[in-house]
Design brief:
Blueprint: E1 6-8, H1 16-26, E2 35-42, E3 51-57, E4 60-61, E5 72-82, H2 88-98, H3 108-116, H4 130-139, H5 141-147, H6 167-172, H7 175-178, H8 181-186, E6 200-209, H9 212-217, E7 224-232, H10 234-243, H11 252-267, H12 276-283, E8 292-293, H13 297-331, E9 339-346, E10 348-355, E11 358-365, E12 367-369, E13 375-378, E14 386-391, E15 401-403, H14 407-415, E16 427-432, E17 438-442, H15 447-458, E18 462-475
Parallel strand pairs: 1-2, 16-18
Antiparallel strand pairs: 2-3, 3-11, 4-8, 5-7, 5-9, 6-7, 6-18, 10-11, 12-15, 13-14, 14-18, 16-17
Helix pairs in contact: 2-13, 4-5, 4-13, 5-13, 10-13, 14-15
């Protein structure tokens, strides 16, 4: 590992696996600046690159520098409810109502029938027509705000206003060339719901206003109920990540099935056979951290697919916001409850950004984009506080990257005995779709989340504005 090409912020990069991965990354010819390893840095079992990590390349896309589903992100809504307004019955009603209007889950066989067009999905209230689907791919959150009748000012709180295609790109896109057939079949359904795996929806309240003026400017006040969500990506992002790569996250069975469909997608049109060698090398050959040059037909096609994935994910999370608002209207103990968006951003992303005086391709893996002066989330765990923070002026020195959360650091410090049960005996109620369907976890002290937040503030990336405490979590 070339240590001069690694910018480490309060994390351990000296275990063997991390060193080996960073050695491969720092050897990439297109790496433009030192890779940024953030405080919550860790290696997931089924992803190639580190999490809580950012790297910038010059003129190439390296898909494995982020997660397979480009576009996964987080957001938070502040409501006019107070912590005094809600109780356990509210949590249960909220969870039940949030899951209404979902379509059926399909296994592998039915998904093949769906791909063939032999069956279809029932149309539910949050689903899209093909025209609406196309519009969201092209215009992202702007189209979703219109489709779901959300306030136009929501766009001011979504990074890049929720769209990464230029007007010229929107009119010239060949979507059939960059999105596989299954995206058109399943990507129009069940938008705004998907809290499996490490995704979640969490009901919190503002426990402390650290920067009172800034918190108030963002609509926060002490005791306010905040609803934080971790999701997005959705079907299109899943498909783009799998069809445009050969990722570790795919099981052996999935790879076998995917090989057939990927081959049809990439080679089915004889007009594309001239790109066959490149496509096989990029998407089928298991070489780690493949550099795919922009300015080439295949590099530009991948870039358009990546941007389509991002736009869809922005639209998907606007559907989450719509479901939350509709659910509040039905189950809230008070009438006329409203909700405003604090922030929505992706943490698995590949973006063109200006760093210094140069336009680079910035890859982030579970790392928020820290815009100076703008809100961002530093998520804790279901047993600790989380923070709404503000981006600081030195973020650019760290590729504008900030930890999206501190989960691994929290667990590590707890295991090492550095955290202890919270003296006030706070608890979080966890609701899920699998047994046990409900459980209660006791809170611990904040050593893990505070270590991450303090490191980010010391490095001039972000500082906390408000401290949130979890009440209930929904998964499944």
């Amino acid at each position: 590992m070339d240590r001069e090409k690694v910018h480490s912020l309060g994390c351990n990069i000296d275990d063997e696996r991390t060193r080996d991965i960073l050695a491969t990354i720092t050897a990439l010819p297109s790496l433009a600046r030192p890779a940024v390893c953030l405080p919550d840095l860790h290696i997931k079992e089924r992803t190639e690159g580190p999490s809580s990590f950012a790297a910038a390349t010059r003129g190439t896309i390296v898909p494995e520098l982020t997660a397979p589903s480009v576009g996964c992100g987080m957001g938070a809504l502040v409501t006019t409810l107070s912590v005094k307004d809600i109780d356990h019955s509210f949590f249960e009603s909220f969870f039940y109502e949030l899951r209404s209007n979902l379509g059926p889950r399909y296994g592998h066989f039915k998904n093949i029938l769906l791909w063939l067009g032999l069956i279809g999905r029932p149309h539910k209230p949050y689903d899209l027509t093909e025209e609406e689907f196309t519009d969201i791919i092209k215009r992202g959150a702007e189209a979703a705000v219109e489709r779901y009748n959300l306030p136009a000012e929501f766009l001011d709180r979504v990074e890049y206003r929720g769209s990464v295609f230029s007007k010229d790109e929107q009119t010239s896109l060949n979507l059939k060339d960059i999105l596989p057939r299954i995206s058109w079949r399943s990507g129009r359904h069940d938008l705004g719901y998907g809290f499996r795996g490490n995704h979640f929806l969490e009901i919190q309240y503002v426990e402390e206003m650290i920067d009172i003026k800034q918190a108030r400017d963002w609509g926060l006040k002490e005791g306010s109920i905040v609803i934080m969500y971790h999701g997005g990506g959705g079907a299109v992002s899943y498909h783009v990540g799998r069809y445009f790569g050969n990722r570790k996250k795919n099981t052996a069975f999935q790879k076998c099935v995917l090989f057939f469909f990927k081959a049809l997608f990439h080679f089915g049109n004889p007009k594309n056979w001239k790109y066959a060698t490149k496509r096989f090398r990029y998407y089928f050959k298991p070489k780690p951290f493949m550099e795919i040059p922009l300015g080439t037909p295949e590099g530009d096609r991948l870039w358009q697919a990546t941007k389509a994935s991002l736009n869809y994910s922005y639209g998907f999370r606007m559907a989450i916001a719509r479901r939350i608002i509709d659910t509040l209207a039905k189950v809230s103990p008070k009438k006329g409850v409203t909700a405003s968006l604090i922030v929505d951003s992706t943490h698995n992303a590949i973006m063109k950004e200006k760093i210094g005086d140069e336009e680079l391709i910035v890859h982030r893996h579970t790392a928020n984009r820290a815009f100076p002066g703008q809100p961002l989330i530093i998520s804790g765990f279901n047993t600790t506080n989380s923070y709404i923070a503000i981006g600081l002026d030195k973020a650019e020195e760290h590729l504008f990257a900030s930890d999206h959360g501190a989960g691994v650091t929290i667990k590590k410090m707890q295991a090492e005995g550095l955290s202890r049960p919270h003296p006030k005996n706070f608890v979080t109620h966890i609701y899920q779709t699998r047994s046990p369907f409900k459980r209660v976890v006791e809170h611990i002290t904040n050593e893990g989340i505070d270590y991450v937040a303090e490191t980010l503030e010391r490095e001039g990336i972000a500082r906390p504005v408000a401290r949130l405490r979890p009440l209930a979590v929904f998964k499944g």
